[in-house]
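Researcher: Checking consistency across runs. Here is Peptide ABC transporter ATP-binding protein again:
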Amino acid sequence: MRRPQLYVHAVDGVSFEIREGETYCLVGESGCGKTTTGRALLRLIDPENIAGGRVLFRPSPKTLEEVARLAPQAVNRELGVVDLYKVPNKAMKPLRRELQIVFQDPFGSLNPRMKIADILEEPLLVHGIGSTREERLEMVAKALEIVKLTPPEEFMDRYPHQLSGGQRQRVSIAKALMLNPRFLVADEPVSMLDVSIRAEVLEILQMLKEKYRLAQLFITHDLALARYVCDRIAVMYLGRIIEEGSADQVIDNPLHPYTKALVAAIPEPDPTNRLKMRLLPIKGEITSAIHLPKGCRFRPRCVAYDENEAVRPRCDSTEPQMVEVEPGHRVACWLYS
């Protein structure tokens, strides 16, 4: 007998908006669907593997007209947006200029056989930008200056292995900037870097937001880092967003029991804490993404479930939906519904 086919819903019912010049943060533990969400926004996932939903992107007017000519069924002229999953592959090239990503691993995301100048020139060649090599190299030098790799001439003829981890990640950011994108996904861009280098990379991302009005999705598992970088934070658990609000709202006044556990786990810079034992308001291990529990998917680990008998029937039977508790602060938990 054949075994029944099982599915992992890596991203389930996720809905949010990222505004121009805003850094929106996805936080959560490994395997919760953060990276899959980021890749889905850039249409780096095969549309055949998307069960439903849509991704709306507002490109520049020039790109909108180009996509409208190639794929009119994907364009809403009234709103000025494109539904990325209605665009055929052959018509995605104009949109790729405006949708970029910085990967987590600066060691694996750069071709070790290419010089830095060639790595940064490649996107320009693919999209036919720059009539001469000299013109393209000027753009490369400018991008290196933006990410503070100066003087650029010292870096253009180097190979990736001749750079430090922080320098390599700055090259990755420069590569993403070569085409003047409107939206950038930064997938844990500093998690593999030394603490001393992280601040430099984060300052560059902050400068890009302020100077170029770049919309960013910042993916991290570090809530303290999210507060420093992001305007709004969404907390994910097993493929769903369970809390969303401004950085101050989510960290200073967490509502969901899972968010409270994440905030409680943030280390405090106090040497006396070495002598203290802290009990985190969470229990057990993360549930299988294949065999999700009925009702609230956080229920098996929820301390509040044990303490609040009145809400248990709803937690057992029905998935909670997002409700707004205060302006801009939403949560999916039966304690607030």
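Researcher: Does this match what you'd expect to see?
Model: One thing to look at in this run: The CA atoms of residues 53 and 70 lie 22 Å apart.
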